[in-house]
Amino acid sequence: MVTTELQDRKLDRAFEHLDVDRDGVIERDDLVGLGARFLLGFGEPPTSIRGRALLDNFDTVWSALLSRLDMEADSRISREEFHRGMAAAFIHGPDWEPAFRPAAQAVARLCDTDCDGMVDPGEFRTMLSAYGTAEGDIAMAFSALDADSDGMVSVTELVAAAREFYTGDDPTAAGSWLFGRI
Amino acid sequence: MDAALLLPLIERVPSMAAPCRSHVDLWRIGEETAGWARAHGLVVGDPDGSRVGRGRFERLAARVFPETGTVRVVRFAKWLTWLFSFDDTLDDGPLGRSATGIDALYAELLRAVRRGAPRPGAGPLEVTLAELWAETVPGLSSEWRRRFIGHMEWHRSACMDEAVNRRTGRTPSIEEYPLLRRRTAGPFVFDLAEAVLGVEVPEAVASSKPWARLVDGTNDLIAWCNDVASYAQETMRDDPHNYVTVASRGLGLDPIAAVDWVNDRITERAIEVQAAARALPAEFTRKGLDLAAQRGVSKVAVGLLGAPRAHLDWLLECGRYTPVPVPAPRKGPLRIAGRLSQVTRA
Q1: Measured between beta carbons, which residues in chain A are less than 8 angstroms from residue B18?
Q2: What is the domain partition of chain A in residue ranges?
Q3: Fewer beta carbons under 10 A from the terminal one: N or C of chain B?
Q4: Neighbours of B116 (CB within 10 A)
Q5: Architecture of domain A5-167
Q6: pTM assigned to the model
Q7: Any idea of its EC number (chain B) (predicted)?
């Protein structure tokens, strides 16, 4: 599965979002850790409707990734395997709609704390802080996504931006800036 | 009155709206925990014949820690078995009315912890506590151990306070009860989340206000839900240490209205707990936690956030607070004679 240089850089960033202990591999517990940090930022327990949806959908993404690599649920994934699995599942494969989109929607809905379909800069900052994104990159990312400069990003736009970031190949697309500079 | 009175909370409290996940090894966790409890004398005879035996604490442990290694979840289930066994020792016998008796028992328990071994010939509570402590603490810092033992001391003094109340027939006031209840709920159990998850909360965070609010609030939610479920049993024992009883007597409410009042407090407290959780990431930054440490502590915090619903689900399915049918009181020699004559005829 061929990926472009831009896609490789974005997948490297995505790998680093999970491999926070920098041991060169990710496992399911790393995804659990990211999910926990998301939930905590929004004060959401794993036993709310939105919290449970986030965890369930993260599991689905993990399963889709592993299935493309022919691995077991408790496997450890290297950076190279992560690139290969993400490309096979979500860039070239059919798993975006059934597996990744629900997870992206679950994250976006978590951000939309007042359920008005919009994410404000504070909610966006809470989300990106969970990934470890630097403050300057958070402001840059929000500006890129806020196309009409109304100070809000819709949940739908955020999901589309996630798709662009994880699968797209257009350096000018707003979604490529989802986490700031690449 | 039983745990079903808590069911409205599932619709009223967003943080308790979704059922918990459960551990894939639930059956094994249950078998190991039950076998250990029997082998150490915490459960004697038919498990269904005692409240601690009917507790099925693996069902609570497996929900609080659905993603954690089986061995650690078994150990947590054993800790729960120990705590509830200790509670029952106080509730079911004369010890619960003797502050000096509790003080002496607790002194021996803490000596066993510090010594790392029980006394020769010690009872099940001391033997199992020493064993659990020895299995739990490797790898945990002296700060964590101090915090845990400090919470055991907190528990000890609260149990003694309750004994004085029982002996003197005093009902705690509605103002003092929440803090007393938080102390009797076994606050050290919440420290065990770190041991189970293999993540120690740095002391700078563990001693911060947002963390204290999260832990105390979670403790309150669980304890108050437990009070609703155990109200009938505690009323039968004439034990005033129950939030429903305290509300009923303090506010002049009938029991059902008092349950509604407690459920209102639970609803409010859940909102405060979520606010405490939201304040934690800023606390992580203030205390200089790197991203890996933040993720680890977040797992502990989210485990606590999910615990009230885990406990609610457990309350609804375990038999611990289900009243066991009690034989009708004897009414006189005639009835006994009748039964005897039937037996004789058979």
Answers
A1: 46-49, 51-52
A2: 5-167
A3: C
A4: 10
A5: Orthogonal Bundle (1.10)
A6: 0.92
A7: 4.2.3.-
